[in-house]
């Protein structure tokens, strides 16, 4: 086993026996084999792109399958056996429609004898990252970075598709990048493709953001309560708003309260959810707190899009998954083939058997600063910048995680000068969104735009601010970016900043292990990339624009 595609890779090198996330070696091999076969599928998809062959199903499948390999999404071996089988079948069907090719990579040729999990695992053991270890070091790191970023792009693309939105350019790029990874290329080419992935990733985020707004309305600034009511409840974690809506609709007259966890906080800010009286509040904090907080919730639990951890005995019998999330032995609420609304009856029935949640905290959490809300503050923010009431805007965005070094983000916010405005999204905000941060001339110091997927809102607002100030470069804005990465969507965030030419981005709490020495040298030289240092040193440097 060799996996180093998230921030919790063992010793910041690689998980080599069992993943810190709970992924075991056999499952890791299945993930590797799936990506291997998807590269083969993309090889043919690129060849078919200028033909009349309809790639719709193949495109949507590739995005869904890549998404399944994102950290903490799916741990169900049977799911991967099915995806590998489908990937090979789709690849073979596509190959048959194309003229015979002279040179075909092994990824596009491999066939299984029978659909057999053990045989798939054995094959997977031979096609992971170590099998590619003879590459040029810099290219090796950038190729892996590209594949992980493509997983992030694929997951966002799939989420948008679930809301009825898609764009062919995302699928075209996914195939192009996977096909690119089959061969050796120059470092410059690999870096350019990484940046392109960042740019497209933010465009996919914007598409998803628009799809959410179209379905659920424009979010409005909202203070979300974290206390609890005295009735049994359902706790929903993950970013799928349509699943929250379906659960709310199906529990409306049942007397069951619904609470959000992790990335689901933003649901409280969407108009479509405000009409549900049983949307009771937000319970707990970020995804990695689930092992402690799920048992205390007492009720039924649903994980919708990602962030699943190995469940503890104290709550496993109350836990359900849906969407691409899965773990064998945990009941899964499947899509309905003939009716788009999922049937959450098993979850609701489970909730009825339980007692009310145990109180964890009694404060409110701010969220819901959509682009419209931020633009409404534009004049006040410009005025505060011009009068130096705001000295700097600090963007602290990304994921949370288990490492104790993530305490840095709490201390950073606690120690930032009071004239710094903070823009955030994603779960890293749970490190500081409970703090009393006050306001600057009536502008709340902490502006949370929502999920990691909503990072495009921050960039769009900053580009609007740049234009209003008549500046020709985002680097001239008094803004510092401090990105807390964990998994593959945060790699997109980081790459999108580089694609915009933004310098001095801080990436923490550790630098990605696939950014080897040669890659780090390149990124440092071209973009002044920084890891995090002490809070004091980083604040001083950020205030100096470094
Ligand atoms: Fe380790 Fe992260 Fe890979 Fe899981 S996803 S095996 S924690 S590197």
Walkthrough of the structure:
The chain has helices at 25-48, 56-68, 77-97, 117-125, 137-162, 168-180, 187-216, 241-251, 271-274, 290-297, 345-352, 371-376, 378-386, 407-415, 455-468, 488-499, 517-527, 535-543; strands spanning 222-225, 233-237, 257-261, 279-282, 300-303, 319-322, 332-333, 364-367, 392-398, 420-425, 439-440, 443-444, 446-448, 479-484, 506-508. It is an alpha/beta fold and 546 residues long. The protein folds into 3 domains: 10-215, Substrate Binding Domain Of Dnak, Chain:A, Domain 2 (Up-down Bundle), CATH 1.20.1270.20; 222-352, Rossmann fold (3-Layer(aba) Sandwich), CATH 3.40.50; 367-543, Rossmann fold. The longest helix has 30 residues, at 187-216. The model has no long low-confidence stretch (mean pLDDT 96). The structure holds iron/sulfur cluster (SF4). Iron/sulfur cluster binds next to loops.
């Amino acid at each position: 086993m060799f996996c180093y595609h998230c921030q919790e890779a063992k010793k910041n090198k690689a998980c080599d026996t069992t993943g810190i996330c709970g992924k075991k070696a056999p499952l890791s091999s299945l993930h590797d084999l799936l990506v291997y076969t998807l590269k083969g599928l993309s090889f043919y998809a690129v060849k078919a792109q200028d033909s009349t062959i309809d790639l719709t199903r193949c495109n949507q499948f590739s995005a869904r399958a890549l998404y399944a390999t994102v950290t903490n999404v799916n741990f169900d071996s049977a799911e991967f056996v099915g995806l590998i089988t489908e990937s090979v079948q789709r690849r073979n069907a596509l190959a048959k429609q194309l003229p015979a090719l002279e040179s075909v990579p092994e990824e596009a040729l491999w066939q299984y004898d029978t659909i057999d999990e053990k045989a798939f695992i054995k094959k997977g053991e031979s096609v992971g990252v170590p099998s590619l270890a003879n590459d040029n070091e810099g290219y090796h790191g950038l190729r892996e970075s590209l594949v992980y970023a493509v997983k992030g792009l694929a997951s966002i693309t799939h989420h948008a598709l679930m809301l009825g939105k898609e764009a062919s350019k995302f699928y075209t790029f996914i195939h192009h990048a996977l096909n690119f990874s089959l061969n050796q290329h120059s470092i410059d080419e690999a870096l350019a493709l990484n940046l392109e992935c960042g740019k497209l990733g933010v465009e996919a985020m914007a598409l998803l953001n628009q799809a959410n707004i179209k379905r659920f309305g424009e979010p409005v600034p909202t203070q979300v309560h974290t206390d609890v009511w005295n009735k049994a409840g359902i706790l929903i974690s993950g970013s799928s708003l349509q699943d929250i809506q379906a659960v709310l609709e199906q529990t409306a007259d049942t007397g069951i309260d619904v609470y959000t966890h992790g990335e689901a906080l933003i649901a409280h800010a969407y108009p479509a959810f405000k009409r549900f009286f049983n949307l009771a509040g937000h319970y707990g904090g970020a995804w990695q707190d689930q092992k402690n907080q799920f048992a205390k919730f007492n009720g039924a639990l649903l994980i919708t899009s990602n962030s699943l951890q190995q469940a503890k005995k104290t709550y496993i019998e109350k836990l359900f998954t849906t969407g691409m999330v899965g773990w064998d032995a945990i009941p899964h609420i499947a899509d309905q083939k003939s009716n788009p609304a999922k049937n959450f009856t098993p979850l609701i029935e489970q909730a009825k058997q339980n007692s009310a949640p145990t109180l964890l905290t009694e404060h409110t959490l701010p969220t819901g600063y959509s682009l419209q809300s931020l633009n409404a503050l534009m004049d006040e923010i410009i005025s505060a910048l011009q009068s130096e009431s705001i000295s700097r805007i600090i963007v602290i965005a990304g994921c949370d995680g288990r490492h104790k070094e993530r305490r840095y983000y709490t201390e950073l916010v606690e120690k930032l000068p009071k004239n710094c405005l903070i823009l955030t999204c994603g779960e890293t905000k749970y490190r500081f969104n409970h703090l009393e941060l006050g306001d600057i001339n009536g502008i709340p110091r902490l502006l949370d735009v929502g999920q990691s997927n909503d990072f495009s809102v921050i960039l769009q607002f900053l580009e609007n601010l740049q234009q209003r100030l008549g500046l020709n470069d985002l680097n001239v804005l008094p803004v510092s970016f401090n990105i807390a990465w964990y998994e593959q969507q945060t790699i997109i965030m980081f790459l999108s900043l580089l694609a915009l030419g933004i310098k001095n981005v801080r990436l923490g709490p550790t630098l990605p292990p696939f950014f080897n020495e040669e890659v780090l040298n390149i990124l440092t030289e071209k973009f002044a990339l920084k890891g995090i240092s002490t809070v004091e040193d980083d604040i001083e440097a950020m205030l100096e624009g470094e």
